[in-house]
Amino acid sequence: MKIGIIGLGLIGTSLALAFKREKFNIWGMDKEESAVEYLLKEGVINNGDTDLDKLSMEIKESEVIFLSVYPSRIIDIIRKLKGYLNKDHILTDTASVKEKIINYVEEDDLLKRIFIGGHPLAGKEKSGYKEGEADLFKDKIYFLTPTSKTSQEKLQKIKSLIELINAKPFVISSKEHDKILSFTSHLPQIISYIISLSVPQEYLEFTGKGFKDTTRLAMSPADLWIDILKENKKNILETLESFQGIFKIIYEKIEGEDWEKLKDFFEESKRRRIKLR
Questions:
Q1: What is the mean pLDDT of residues 136-159?
Q2: Angle, to 10 degrees, between the axis of helix 10-20 and the axis of helix 152-164?
Q3: 136 and 81 in one domain?
Q4: Where among 111, 145, 172 does a domain terminate?
Q5: What CATH number has the domain bearing residue 75?
């Protein structure tokens, strides 16, 4: 099987490493020449370039193409690819925001038959091709957001690929995906940045493991997260309003010394967290 990967950062490179174990023919494209050269030299990809047009034959011969770039760039890449695509292709992505992309492909008769949204719930606070891991997706949820015209054959094919890399495919609508992720991924990221900023700089040398664990996400690339927040703005604002409401209640319970009610909040929080073990 020939697989294409556009965007050779952490996720794209991890996909390449995982599929390489299955002896697939893999080509890659990235705007960073160093990423392409490194992965070619290491034998992770069979062919690669920084210019998409120079990979036109690879695109045409591919069964599946993964778009692993920032959410706001996905639609532009799809536009550039469209002239090379046909009904036999499967085009998918790995972006953590899905609805805007799905809405775009739904307007095109070919794209809505070959595009299946994807998002692996996997990652690290560090980015870049040198951080790639073949086992990054092991036992992780891998969201799939089909279109209104996605065939069961194509959906099953992408599910099988995801299972090959030991991830767990989970089919969901793009709208529901973006709402869920605003709570479970985007909110924790914002809070991590806030907590890291809230501690006076002169106190940072006195932080322990708890602080470091809580703010680990603050080491993530800022430009990526600005891109995600832009693309999922409406859901994130609603999620922040919900968080603000809970924060206000906690503040008021402390101010009013309502320790019993506060304990109830903390116990409920503890019960929810224990369930994740």
A1: 97
A2: 90
A3: yes
A4: 172
A5: 3.40.50.720
Are 119 and 240 contained in the same domain? no
Burial of 72 (0-12, 13-18, 19+ CB in 10 A): middle
Tens of pLDDT, residues 97-141: 999 999 999 999 999 999 999 999 998 778 899 999 999 999 999
Domain boundary among 143, 172, 201: 172
CA gap 41, 43 in Å, rounded: 5
10 contacts: CB under 8 Å, gap ≥ 6: 123, 124, 126, 127, 128, 129, 131, 132, 136
Q: Give the mean pLDDT of 74-78.
A: 97
Q: Transcribe 9-37 into DSSP letters.
A: SHHHHHHHHHHHTTT-EEEEE-S-HHHHH
Q: Identify the three-state secondary structure at position 39.
A: helix
Q: Which tens digit of pLDDT belongs to each residue from 184-218? A: 999 999 999 999 999 999 999 999 999 999 999 99
Q: Domain of 256: which CATH number?
A: 1.10.3660.10
Residues 144 and 12 both lie in one domain = yes
Q: Determine the structural domain holding residue 136 and report its residue range.
A: 2-172
**In terms of domains, do 67 and 122 share one?**
yes
Question: Three-class SS of residue 60?
Answer: helix
User: How many whole angstroms separate alpha carbon 233 and alpha carbon 120?
Assistant: 20
Q: Determine the average pLDDT of the residues in 164-182.
A: 98
Query: pLDDT averaged over the chain?
Result: 96
Work out how many domains the chain is built from and give that number.
Answer: 2
Distances (CA, A) of 122 to 33, 164, 216: 25, 16, 15
Element (H, E) at 236: helix 233-255
Q: What predicted TM-score, i.e. pTM, was given to this entire model?
A: 0.93
What's residue 276's pLDDT? 85
